[in-house]
Amino acid sequence: MNSKKLPTFTAAALLLSSSLLWGGEKIANVQVSNASEEARHEEAITVPLQGLGVPKETWETGVFEVYTNDVRYPSQTIDSDGDGFKDSILFFASMEGNEALDFTLRQKHKGSDVPVSAKRTQADLSIRVDGEWVEGKRAGDKERGDWQYMGGKWADVSSLKVPEKHSDHADYIRYEGIGIESDKVGYRFYLDWRNGFDIFGKTDPGMALKKTGLDGFESYHHMQDWGMDILKVGPSLGIGGYGFWDGEKVLRVSDWSGIKAKVLENGHLQSSIKISYKDWEFDGKKSDLDAVLSMQAGSRLVRVQLNTSEDVSGICTGLVKHEGTERLAGEIDNITGEAWTYIATWGPQSLDGGNLGMAILFQKRDRSKITEDELNEVVVLRSTDRNYEYYFLAAWDKEPNGITTKEAFEAYLQEEVNKLTIPSRTRESNRLGDKSKSYPMSSLDALGWSKKLADTQLKLLGDHLVRGGFDQDIGNHARWSYTTGLMCKAYIDLGTATGDDKYTNQGFKIIDSYINDQGEIATYNLESYNIDQINSGKMVLHMYEETGLEKFKIAANQLRQQLRDHPRTSEGGFWHKKIYPYQLWLDGVYMGMPFLAEWELIFNDGKGIKEAVHEFELVRKYCRDPETGLYYHAWDEKAQQGWADPETGLSKYFWGRGFGWYCMAIVDMLDIVPESQPELRQVLLDLVPEVADALLGVQDPNSGVWWQILDAPERAGNYLESSASSMFIYFLAKAINGGHLEGEKYRQATQNAFDGLIREFVEVDAEGNVRISKMCRVAGLGYGRDGSWHYYMSEPVVTDDPKGAGPFILAGMEVSKLLK
Q1: How far apart are CA 293 and CA 659, in angstroms?
Q2: Which pLDDT score, from 0 to 100, does residue 329 have?
Q3: Of 260, 479, 596, 604, which one has the fewest beta carbons inside 10 Å?
Q4: What angle do CA 175, 179, 183 make, to 5 degrees?
């Protein structure tokens, strides 16, 4: 990747020499990489302050500056999650395809900020003051009240509790609501029973809201020097409004006991507002509702974050339907649940008679239903712990250099969903983190990092994996899954290594919470024949051997019964799931085979261990690439799946974590298969150097770690990935420790990899919390996951996912043994 080119700037940006401003203290370096082959202009880059080691008490008051080379770049400290507190640095980068740019972040603790760009976003709320409410004068809906505010003058306010006397056309709130705009477009949100969302089309990029509605309601319905109101909302949601879907129609947010509006941010690069509804009544139910809406410079999009006080099934959003328009829709069937898509309309639906495009953007996983009623195109949303998120946008053909055709609008929408689905990658290094790390790592260092991450997990996440807890990984209440057992193994092994019972107790607590006195496993479903569900059984066996409690034996026997009845390939390979017929995945070897082998050892004198070892042989036979020694993610015996090569049945790529599961399974099995079965042990022993050499062949020479797709480091979107790197380190260190892998090259590669793991992925905050970043949340095949390059790049990159945290803790312990 080219990391030398200076970023481009908009004409509005005022670039100042660093010699004028570099009084700030350097806190971090950030490299931004375009994850696309296509150029991206002014892509928003958001860097969380948490990962930069900046004390929280300075987040609100500190001035954060962004530089590239000797030039200060426009930036803003923002509230990215809508909770009312600043938490991230926002700036923009323009890059060619697959280009990387380097930035330096600095912080000033004293003095005022120096603006480095024109104001490009605005939040606006204005009311009349020094007048009086008069009854019987209003020209609006008489059923909603009959008060009008007479006299007085306009005054900007930062927050407002809407008076009970206020309703539509009361002349109390300028342009009847709160507004937000960028240099592209503006929107207003009615603060009355209509709750419609309207569009202010702009013919000039300057800020317009402060000039709007000063002389009443009529003027902005006609062309002004800045543009005009361009949407007829009527009794609909307008553009992107929210409501409740009762099964037949949308119920707007119209009945409530109180409504408040607040300007959260009014910045030059991002502005945001909050609207809160007390006791919203709908369909015989009641809930409070908070809505945070934000816009960024250069963008038409409004991000909407909703939160309800009660569980509400039926929250929806939509677009007003107008005659003569065409309904558009993005891909929905052949994309992953994490990918973004859209519904949209295009046509002569602007009040000036021109063409107007409107769209709702949402993640596939958040869509419950796409439907319509008489007034609206509708998306019914699915919540994550009573939270909802989507975007809406408008594109008017009168904008300067605007979008004027349906084809251009569709191309623009696809570009926007691509940016949301695969945002640019960032790599950060910060001063605090650098000070806390020393290289090469020692034995004490390695164990120390495992403890620090586990301590942070316990402190910040606590019982999130205990039954009834909220599992952030799946965005729902915790359930029996493979990550349950993975984290429990990490905790229990760490307790053994350190002698600290708090880790062991947490591991036991998690597993025990799912198994009742009758040995029934809560949330487990045998009949789904999902091999992922078997992994936690390893810890059930461990708890049985530790406690002797019959309930753990009963639970383990249920899991063993699943494997007896589990559907197989013609040669006896376990299908990954019942819904994934004839498919062997690398993941499944780790999920099922160590449990199978250990159950046979404990309860059946090891007679069935051969069956578990056979799975390794089949996966090697069908998934291994003879040239590189790497393993493809999966194989379809029937070669019928959309992701499968029609000749070989193989998936297309060497996915890092998939291979990582397989590698960990090899060395874990060598702990189980007894010396009394040397033929079976030899199958596994032969795999160790073969797999190790394949790993060393694709180990990144600069960082020491590994890539998301192992053999394509220079391809756009690929990134150094922490969960796979942790798994490979665990495999190498444990193989060396067990005497299964000999040679200085392996020892040095492991040391380099662990040093790189800490350098690249470990974040240390000002409170001493440790996090592991840059991990793929999940990757699979089928059901919209087509196994393409775009797919593997589209899965979200997250921090502290248990699929990375668990292997990191385990890797640190094995490296600690290695370095003693």
Answers
A1: 41
A2: 98
A3: 604
A4: 120
